[in-house]
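TL;DR need structure tokens for one chain.
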Amino acid sequence: MTTCNIGRRSFLQRIGLAAATISFPSYLRAAKATDDRPNIVFIMADDMGYGDLGCFGQKKFETPNIDRIAGEGMRFTHCYAGSTVCAPSRSVLMTGQHTGHTRVRGNMCRAGGSVGYKGKQKVRRMYLTDEDTTIGNVLQKAGYHTGIIGKWHLGGYKADATPLDRGFDEFYGWLNRTYETIYPTYYPAKRYRNRELYDITANQNGSKGYYHTDICSDEALQFLNKNKGRRFFLYLAYINPHDPLEVPDLGPYADKPWPKPMKTYAAMIHRLDQRVGKVMRTLKELNIDERTIVFFCSDNGPRSGGSKTLTEVAEFFESNGPFQGYKRDMYEGGIRVPMIVRWPGKVPVAKTCDTPWYFADFLPTAADLAGAEPPKNIDGVSLLPTLLGREQDLHDRFLYWEFFERGFQQAVRWRNFKAIRLKQSEPLLLFDLAKDPGEQRNVAAEYPEAVARIERYLETARTDSPNWPL
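>> reply
TL;DR here they are.
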């Protein structure tokens, strides 16, 4: 059985906050009453590992602003991304369907989709279609003004698959179809403002005057100021600390006796932390803090592949925390992510919760917050009772992932067990996460009934995809 416990003394000392006793309101009764419905802000980092925050164990660099959100809210230690790479992870978040059902199941698809270029390589990318119901669609229908800032990554190379075509009223960021011409670095020369592609003056002709993370943050503050008088949903999708390792300055890490890539990575997360702090302060300054629920997380585990340097950085900071694996792995290090939720007066303060959940649960949870009906064909469940500190029996549910870049791989979380199939024809590996969170010991032979139960689930866990045929 999962538990949600008040943060340990060491955790509270680390972030400099004490636990507070609060009284919870009654369950929102589907939040039908207008005054009960909060604004919703979902902040996502890119390729930031479970161990890259102070409140999740990072010791070599600090994240005081994000740690403060945890101290003022709930820290989830068993939350999972939608996938182990960015596009399918975001597709799960947007649709409430896991990777066995959601439209986008990988960064590149095997068939169909839209054709474009990544560098000189011709590739196929799938995109969300108008048949897909997104969280934006659900909240728009409930009367929310919806906005996305930063990384969409669900439009492929299709001109009519932008966020504005999939449930969002405002969009500020970049798209895959113009990636090579406007976003090769953290200093884009052009950017979208809704459907307008405009020049960023400070970044013309190779200049590096306006850092992407700062752009996103400034746009977020503008969005909040403009929409403070109405109910809104803001999806703020940063790209820090995704490679390339690049930052305007090394900040407090300039004099550390570390190799430059390590200093740069720490400074990238420092910059992210500072900008998240500005967003949180703006909510307070606008007097909408107490009627706004904030989620903070990462889209998958930390990047370690692609170069020796990235691997060295991830290992130096132990970015995957106590887990095995990194981005593109089905082990915990690839899919378990830090999740923090804060809502003053509603979400318990300085609480740590080990209830397992994943990105598919965000859509029904947000729908519950908004008093809206979620789509019928989703895999997620509303976590609102858990967020409000109430008992919720999720002990026997299954969480599912599949991944295609290394053949066909599957993973399942059920109770304390984690099952992984690394190749289509191989037997399941089974790990007892309660005793072995690092997934070092395969216990499939010791728990044949658990293996059989998971195998029965896998028979109906997914539907075939024409874009990722087996």
